[in-house]
Amino acid sequence: MYYFFSKRIFLFAVFSCLLAEVSFALSKDAEDSTRVYTIREVRVTESYRNAEIRSSSPLQILSSKQIGNLNALQVSDAVKYFAGVAVKDYGGIGGLKTVSVRSLGAAHTAVSYDGISLSDTQTGQIDIGRFSLENVDMLSLSNGQSDNIFQPARLFASAAVLNIRTLTPRFEGANYIHARASLKGGSFGMINPSLWLQYKLSRKYALSFSSEWLSADGQYPYKLYHGGEGDSVSNEKRKNTDVKNLRLEAALHGSLSEKENGYIKAYYYHSERGLPGAIILYNTENFSSQRLSDATFFLQGHYQNILSEMFSIQGNAKFNHGYLHYLDPTYLNETGRQESFYRQNEYYLSLSALYKALPHLSFAVSSDGFINALGAEFESDSVTNEFPKPVRYNLLSVVAAKYVSEHVLATASLLSTLVKETVQKGSAGSNYNRLSPYVSVTYKPLQNSDLRFRAFYKNIFRLPTFNDLYYSRIGNIHLKPETTNQFDIGITYAVSLGKTIPLVSFTVDGYRNHVRDKIMAMPTKNIFVWSMVNLGKVRITGVDISGEASVSAGEKLTILFGGTYTYQRALDVTDPEGSTYLHQVPYMPRVSGSGRLSLETPWVNFAYSLLWSGKRYSTFQNFAVNRLASYSDHSLSVSKSFSLLNQKLNFKFEALNLLNENYMIVKWFPMPGRSFRGTLSWTF
Amino acid sequence: MKYFLIEKKRSADRWIIAIISVCLFSMASCDDMQDKERKQSFVSETSVTGIYVLSEGLFNLNNSTLAYYNFDPAKLTSDLFLTMNKRGLGDTANDMAAYGSKLYIVVNVSSQIEVVDLATGQSIKRIPMFNDSEVARQPRYIDFAKGNAYVCSFDGTLVRIDTANLNITGIVKCGRNPDGLCIANNKIYVTNSGGLDYPNYDNTVSVIDAATFTETKKITVGINPSRIHADSEGDVYLVSRGNYGDIPYKFQKINSKTDELEQTFDDIQALNFTIHNDTAYIYNFDFSTQSSWIKVFDCKKEVIISNSFITDQTSLTTPYGIDVNPLNGDVYITDAKNFIVWGDVVCFDNKGNFKFKIEELGLNPNKTLFVTKTTTKIQE
User: What are phi and psi of A626, to 5 degrees?
Assistant: First the structure.
């Protein structure tokens, strides 16, 4: 196996050795290292890193500043830098992007926006390519669940949570208005103006507004191999990739007192795009004519009050409306087109209470009630009339406890899920009633060292989606939930090595996950009609490593390094007699990782970022013909800021996929090659 | 982190960093994932030199293959088309048939007819199947008569191709989503499935006069008709696949002299069949019970000869195609397994005794074609 020793892993290992060397060398000048450093940016990074190190279940955070150095446009671009994550990216700005954590599948990752879950009961997965990074303050990914027990029950109800936190108003001095306008432009006709504004209404209230427009034709070139590498090849251009997005967001934030705060936010997103589809040999043009138009509107609110030293309460509420229109104008039915309209509504209410029973021990209860409804129309009335119009009533309740002392942090929770479903046509799916336990602990053995051991166990499931249950002909109302068990043990460590290396930190986690009753499409009714069944068991054994270090060379030069490495055996263990037994599941690399490096100087800042992935297989059998090649994607940016009278101008130039590597994450959906992007932003 | 503690913890931290580095270094477990080998089968057969097996692959994966299995010496070329032409067949190769020295492969989603040299697998011509507004016709099945190839396509057409110069010489409109054709009495019979208008299926067979190349009649049959074959007496048999719900599959017969639906065999709920020397081998597969049967039907006497063709304990997972070796009457059945793994070809003699199995030769194999000694020149 050492023949396959990847150069990149080798570099990573060398890098970690270097760090060790440096740390030995540095111990010599320990005397003058007692000064407290005051670099503000490092502070911010450090405080996030601190949370990552202390967390009892793996927590990974990217601050807005770190995101700025990742050469990322969409949330999906940044999420790729987390350890243990596989973003299924169909390529281009408009292509679907979903995130699977530790090979559990995208439907097991919840995505929350400012603390409240986003939902798509129809498909069960959130397209994180829709979310811009323009107004994102922080991205965090929790495996299992967060150590924060005082949060809505829904955030306890998934195998992993990706949290998107947007910028909240902050005012310095007598300023009452703060704004940023930016304009991005880049390859493949990309134009992306945005405006972000916050306005202080009074001592208690502030308004924020964020908007952006993005349009691109997205016609990027790629190399098409009409077989495997070495077979005939042609230079092609991706077609039907145009996209137009509009996002509008407005919020009223209130800090009523030291103890009482909340916000109300309205969000609107609309997108018109082509669905480029898979490359079909000799027929790509034809396959690239499908259109998708979708819109999301939600109104959400949050209120929190620390009633006393011992009691706190919070409430969260949301209304969500989703609209989706799909059109295939070349479908060979009587009308010559296939068309569907879907409308989803969600009504959501959550109440939580926190009780600090003892200085070290607190308890929380949380209850979320929500209703999801789906309506649909199709090109023909006969199909429309058959649509069951499902409505799902959910009641999630959780009790949780947390113990914190100098050496130990432990949490435990028990989640109850009650689901009832009704339909207007046909039969409804089953009602579900389940209990899901979770425990986690972290232990810090040494007084003077930031070394911790941690472990967590979580049992959770995902419900069948409306598509799984009711999709025309394919749906199966007898589905059971898809269940996951996660075991994780890890070590976290952070140290400050003097003013030159103010921060070095590592986390290493080993895990074993089991997925059973995996919901997948199989032909069951007859040869032509595939339907969803609970079949499939997956056993995942993996290691996630992340490391970060900052180096200050003199007053003026700061270097930040970060990297992740993931090793995963995600094996199909469905049937010992079957021909896919112990084969790696589709699209999961055995090894993958990321790296980032930024260099801050008084004149200009540089940021380099790297994503790489080992080979993968596109179908269930690990045969050579199904193999997708490994890839690496390098990006580089240069930025420069000018400050004048409280105003700041920033220029940034990014070169993406610098080596112009022609690669695919999903088979027959090529990724863009080398491209460029420029950003001009003005902040005051 | 409390920075002022640094002096005290220096020694412990040094060790921790060293250990972590060593762990990382050794743990830099490289990509140890290896390709798995496919099963190999060594079987022998003397009546033919080898067989071609067409596999449609999976939708949108462009992984249709043309496998060639040579019997002596036993050797599988898993994709002869790719090997010979340095390009793949494309997406969803649905049907193939030989005429003269050429092999015609119908590639549904790629919307192409690949014409290759039967002896070598070398491409002679790729015929794009698109209409005037560049919409894919999506060809499904092919048959031949008097120097012409006829191809029915999902766009509701029958296309005529001159097999001498491989040019399209005519197009005629049929019903909705044709999914099968055969030729009898100088007429082409095209089954109009209407499958893409689910649940509003078509239920007709278009009759096209070969001489005038016009549709002369639409015969009403069961809903969702698909596979269709003629016997030597000019009887045209077909299966209507119902609605996969309350309306079951049907095995039916059209008289090509009167062009009337003559009979529906209620006791034969068939999914697919083939006819060889006026004997029909008919199979069904029941997904709910995962069981299949193969019946043998005498097309002259129009009675079932055998209700259970397989005489031994051989079991098939999912029969997906059935063909007969014209030289000795052996019956070849392609087994698609669970449709996501590579399937097999299973051979029985004409008495239903298991002869051999060639394992894992393609993803969703659907058609077997027999190559005789005189035609093959494939050199490895």
Answer: -95, 0
Find the closest chain A residue to B198 by CA distance: A383
Residue B323 neighbours by CB under 8 Å, 6+ apart: B274, B331, B332, B367, B368, B369, B370
CATH number assigned to the domain comprising residue A559: 2.40.170.20
- In which residue are the tokens 């006497």 written? B301
Nearest CA in chain A to B34: A622
Both tokens of residue A560? 């930040």
Contact A324, A309 (CB under 8 A): no
Cα separation, B273 vs B277, whole angstroms: 13
Token match 């006709």: residue? A189
* Domain of residue A496, residue span: 2-683
Q: How many domains are contained in chain A?
A: 1
Q: What's the pLDDT band for B245 if we cut at 50, 70, 90?
A: confident
Looking at the DSSP bridge assignments, the partners of residue A505 are: A494, A548
Taking CB atoms and an 8 Å limit, are A622 and B7 in contact across chains?
A: no
Chain A residue with CA closest to B242: the answer is A526
Task: Determine the Cα–Cα distance for residues A125 and A158; give it in Å rounded to an integer.
Answer: 12
pLDDT at A22: 31
Residues of B in contact with A19 (CB under 8 A): 17, 21
Q: Are B314 and B335 in contact (CB under 8 A)?
A: no
- Tell me how far apart the alpha carbons of residues A70 and A654 are, in angstroms, rounded to a whole number: 10
Separation between Cα atoms, residue A394 and residue A166, nearest integer Å? 27
DSSP annotation of B341 reads S
Alpha helices (H) along A512-553: none
C-alpha span between B335 and B350 (Å, rounded): 18
Q: Write out residues 153-172 of B within 8 Å (CB-CB) of A.
A: 154-156
Which residues partner with B358 through β-bridges? B345
For residue range B306-341, what is the model confidence (pLDDT) as tens digits? 999 999 888 899 999 999 999 999 999 999 998 889
- Contact yes or no for B156 and A630 at CB 8 A: no
d(CA B226, CA B94): 13
- Reported as half-sphere exposure (CB side, CA atoms, 13 A), residue B370 has a value of 17
Residues of chain B neighbouring A473 (CB-CB closer than 8 A): 198, 244
Beta-carbon separation of B29 and A545 below 8 A: no
Length of chain A: 684
Give residue A383's region: left, alpha or beta (phi > 0; psi -120 to 50). alpha
Closest CA to B304 of B283, B290, B289, B286: B283
A-chain residue closest to B32, CA distance: A1
Q: Can you give the pLDDT at residue B4?
A: 40
Helix (H, G, I), strand (E, B) or coil at A107: helix
> How far is residue A243 from each of residues A40, A92, A132, A213, A321, measured CA to CA in Å?
39, 9, 14, 11, 21
Reduce the secondary structure of B220-268 to three states and give it as a string: ECCCCEEEEEECCCCEEEEEECCCCCCCCCEEEEEECCCCEEEEEECCC
For position A521, what pLDDT does the model report? 79
User: Residue A351 CB: number of other CB atoms within 10 A?
Assistant: 16
Whether the predicted pLDDT of A422 surpasses 90: yes
DSSP labels, A448-459: SSEEEEEEEEEE
Cα dist from A575 to A394, A536, B223, whole Å: 34, 8, 38
Q: Could you tell me which of B330, B239, B341 has the C-alpha nearest to residue B285?
A: B239
What are the tens digits of pLDDT across the range A387-419? 999 999 999 999 999 999 999 999 999 999 999
The whole-angstrom separation of Cα A356 and Cα A362 is: 4
Q: Which residues of A touch B13 (CB under 8 A)?
A: 23, 449, 495
- Residues A488/A20, Cβ–Cβ less than 8 Å: no
